[in-house]
Design a protein that fits this description.
Order of helices and strands of chain A: HHHHHHHHHHHHHHHH
CATH topology of chain B: Rossmann fold
Strand content of chain A: under 5%
CATH class of chain B: Alpha Beta
Number of strands of chain A: 0
Number of helices of chain B: 10
Radius of gyration of chain B: 19 Å
CATH superfamily of chain B: P-loop containing nucleotide triphosphate hydrolases
Helix content of chain A: over 70%
Distance between the termini of chain B: 35 Å
CATH architecture of chain A: Orthogonal Bundle
Strand order of the largest sheet of chain B: 6-7-8-3-9-10
Oligomer: heterodimer
CATH architecture of chain B: 3-Layer(aba) Sandwich
Distance between the termini of chain A: 36 Å
Largest sheet of chain A: none
CATH class of chain A: Mainly Alpha
CATH topology of chain A: ABC transporter involved in vitamin B12 uptake, BtuC
Number of helices of chain A: 16
Number of domains of chain A: 1
Structural class of chain A: mainly alpha
Largest interface: A-B, 32 and 38 residues
Shape of chain A: globular
Number of strands of chain B: 10
Chain lengths: 350, 253
């Protein structure tokens, strides 16, 4: 297929996806469903953008929550600042979203320029260090960020384009739009030539350099794009909660994002998104009976790592591929099962 | 085309490259032979920028390239395949070659169209045909045979359309028949692309049948250079390298 057509088709799918999401909001306007979905949109962008680094580029960042929080804080602080809403009026929310996106991009670029010089575990720890630094900054600069209390007192969200973000449904529609836009950007990046270059770096960075590609620049660019999309997730959560909290930048958020990728599947594009939904479901269902949600999540992770040996969606796709092969030749199935098992073990080990 | 001028590389007290002066004329097909530890791969690593020479110059197209970064040297037109096939295991053969073509076309950072762009796809198809790899085009690079992986490694280097191509033991680890096939393919590539080719090889029969010029290295220094019959008749070379198998092993130790 023509390469421009693939982009057009993917964009069309995103528009259809958005229409379906909006339709859900119209048909089932219940607060519980829409608020749950809005929360999922925020986590979804955090996790999918981290997957661009972990799954596609082979960069395991332990500090991805920093960009998520950065997006939420920039958005909230700008709208809470004196005179901003009065000056911008109806444009306040779109402009604050854009500023949050660019500001977070700048922050991620700065951190990326420093971290991408290091490899593997050193990279992971340095990203974690920058995240801790951000938490300290948020807690220290009390007069701007509200310190431990977070951005309280509500974030003003003036009406625009007929959307009043105080309303559950309007908030849901705008969040769905931001989510689909972020998801589309990630999808297009993975489908582009740059996306193929990311996979080269993941598979064999030395060889990539020997093909004349500056791999440092590749990693910095991926880090920046992923940071921006995570920031967009933070904006959604800030709109949803009408606040921002220092916990958003905590290591627990980064850690849970990595868990959700492992849970859903590292090797498929939509795997991490499934991880977000499953994790949320485990959380909410457990809460009906007990408050020990972390125990339930831990058991789920153990099951996925030890029994399935790969994320849920990876497992489903593998089982389906094996079924399809059945009937061609018995040997083939065995050999494929063996390689898959070997692959799964390697993944679990790494 | 490529000229090494009094090249020296020392690792502490060890001289891995000992005052090597070699000339590789444009369009030539040269082989570098020598016992294990003679400094053949070290020489390649200096040419491709993986190692910085202690002293001496590496002249490429009249320009001193010693000390440049690997990526910069590749872009000037020196490609390389590795002793242990260096490939992208999770990509199909087709995809892997297309990424290399994309790197050469400077579209590796392109975000505005799907991979691979049309012109990259055409060049990739040509490359697949040239390498004779169409049957495995859709297979994962990590799952094809060892020989095909070595060939793919050569193909990745070839995608950059290099003026000089360095092959580090292109037939390493292959069966006897496969080795000859590989060298035939290499010779065919050399002819069709009209480039300067330098390869390292241990199999003396393979070298004598394939190379135009042979350079013999020993303890990092050039022991002899010449055509196959000259090298075969050179008493120094016979003593140092072409002697009995046990002598070669001793040299290696």
């Amino acid at each position: 297929m023509n390469s421009t057509r693939i982009f057009a088709r993917t964009s069309l799918m995103a528009v259809i996806g958005l229409a379906v999401l909006i339709l859900i909001g119209v048909i089932y306007p219940g607060t519980w469903l829409l608020d749950t979905m809005t929360g999922l949109f925020a986590s979804g962008l955090l996790v999918m953008s981290l997957h661009l680094l972990v799954g596609y580029t082979g960069l395991v960042s332990f500090g991805h929550a920093a960009y998520f929080a950065s997006g939420g804080y920039i958005f909230g602080m700008l709208l809470q600042a004196d005179g901003v809403v009065a000056a911008l009026g109806g444009w306040a929310v779109p402009i604050a979203t854009l500023v949050a996106l660019l500001g977070t991009g700048g922050f991620a670029l700065f951190v990326g320029l420093i971290c991408a010089r290091l490899s593997e575990i050193y990279f992971a720890f340095l990203t974690l260090a920058f995240q801790m630094l951000l938490v300290s900054a948020i807690q220290g600069l009390v007069q701007y960020t509200g310190g431990d209390q977070g951005l309280t007192g509500g974030i003003p969200r003036p009406e625009f384009l007929g959307l009043n973000l105080v309303e559950v449904k309007d908030r849901y529609v705008f969040s769905a739009f931001l989510f689909m836009a972020g998801l589309l950007v990630i999808r297009l990046v993975t489908l582009s030539s740059f996306g193929a270059t990311l996979r080269m770096v993941r598979d064999n960075e030395t060889r990539t350099a020997f093909l004349g590609i500056n791999t440092y620049r590749v990693k910095v660019a991926a880090f920046t794009i992923a940071g921006m999309i995570a920031g967009l997730g933070g904006v959604i959560l800030a709109i949803f909660t009408s606040a921002a909290y220092p916990e958003w930048a905590g290591w627990a958020v980064s850690g849970e994002a990595i868990f959700m990728i492992m849970l859903g599947g590292l090797h498929s594009f939509y795997g991490p998104l499934l991880g977000v939904v499953v994790m949320r479901a485990i959380n909410d269902i457990t809460l009906i009976y007990t408050t020990h949600t972390d125990l339930a999540k831990g058991i789920a992770i153990l099951f996925v790592v030890l029994v399935l040996r790969r994320g849920i969606l990876d497992w489903i796709l593998d089982v389906r591929a094996t079924r399809r092969k059945r009937g061609t030749s018995g040997d083939q199935i065995t050999s494929q099962a063996l390689t898959k098992t070997a692959k799964g073990t390697k993944d679990a080990a790494s | 085309m490529l000229h090494l001028d009094h090249l020296v590389k020392k690792f502490g007290g060890l001289t891995a490259t000992d005052d090597v002066t070699l000339d590789f004329p444009a369009g030539s097909l040269s082989a570098i032979i020598g016992p294990n530890g003679a400094g053949k791969t070290t020489l390649f690593n200096q040419i491709t920028g993986h190692l910085v020479p202690t002293s001496g110059r590496i002249m490429f197209d009249g320009e001193n390239i010693s000390g440049l970064k690997p990526a910069a040297i590749v872009r000037k037109g020196i490609g390389r395949a590795f002793q242990v096939a260096s490939i992208f295991p999770s990509m199909t053969v087709e995809e892997a070659l297309a990424t290399a073509v994309s790197a050469h076309n400077r579209t590796a950072f392109q975000l505005h169209s799907a991979f691979p762009p049309l012109n990259v796809r055409h060049q990739t198809e040509e490359l697949l045909a040239l390498l004779g790899m169409e049957p495995v085009a859709r297979s994962l690079s990590g799952e094809i045979s060892h020989g095909d992986q070595k060939l793919l490694d050569v193909g990745l280097a070839l995608a950059l359309n290099p003026k000089v191509l360095l092959l580090d033991e292109p037939a390493a680890g292959m069966g006897p028949e496969e080795r000859w096939q590989m060298m035939d393919t290499v010779k065919h590539l050399w002819k069709s692309r009209n480039m300067t080719l330098i390869f390292i090889e241990h199999d003396i029969d393979l070298v004598f049948k394939t190379a135009e010029i042979i350079h013999v290295l020993r303890y990092g220094a050039v022991l002899a250079s010449g055509k196959a019959h000259e090298i075969r008749g050179n008493p120094e070379v016979i003593k140092a390298y072409l002697g009995s198998e046990t002598d070669t092993v001793k040299d290696a130790v």
